[in-house]
Design brief:
single chain
Length: 111
């Protein structure tokens, strides 16, 4: 009896869909990590500018208070992004394991 083409094998198709979904989830979280890192860099740049502004002798009391408030908000947002980044890195490890298991199952079904 001839072996079924993999495209006709429902189990193979299921495993292939699982692998592709795992691969897509991994790409999505990696994209999120890049976005978070870009945002964090931008906020740190803004925070440095505000710090320099605060060190300037030519700043009014009102401008100084606004700069302090903005800097505080930026520091809070940077801390939030650091937490997001840590969660995303943890998720990447889990998604890589999931993708690797799906790939192994797919390869095993071809034997």
């Amino acid at each position: 009896m001839a072996r079924m083409d993999d495209s006709d094998n429902p189990e193979y198709l299921r495993l292939e869909r699982a692998y592709r979904a795992a691969e897509q989830a991994l790409h999505d979280i990696e994209d999120d990590i890049v976005r978070i890192q870009d945002e964090e860099r931008e906020y740190r740049r803004q925070e440095r500018q505000l710090r320099e502004q605060l060190n300037s002798p030519n700043i009014s009391d009102t401008q100084r208070q606004e700069a302090r408030d903005q800097r505080y908000l930026l520091k809070c947002r940077i801390a939030d992004l650091a937490s997001e980044l840590q969660e995303a890195h943890n998720e990447v490890h889990a998604l890589r394991n999931n993708r690797d298991r799906a790939q192994a199952a797919l390869e095993q079904s071809q034997l």
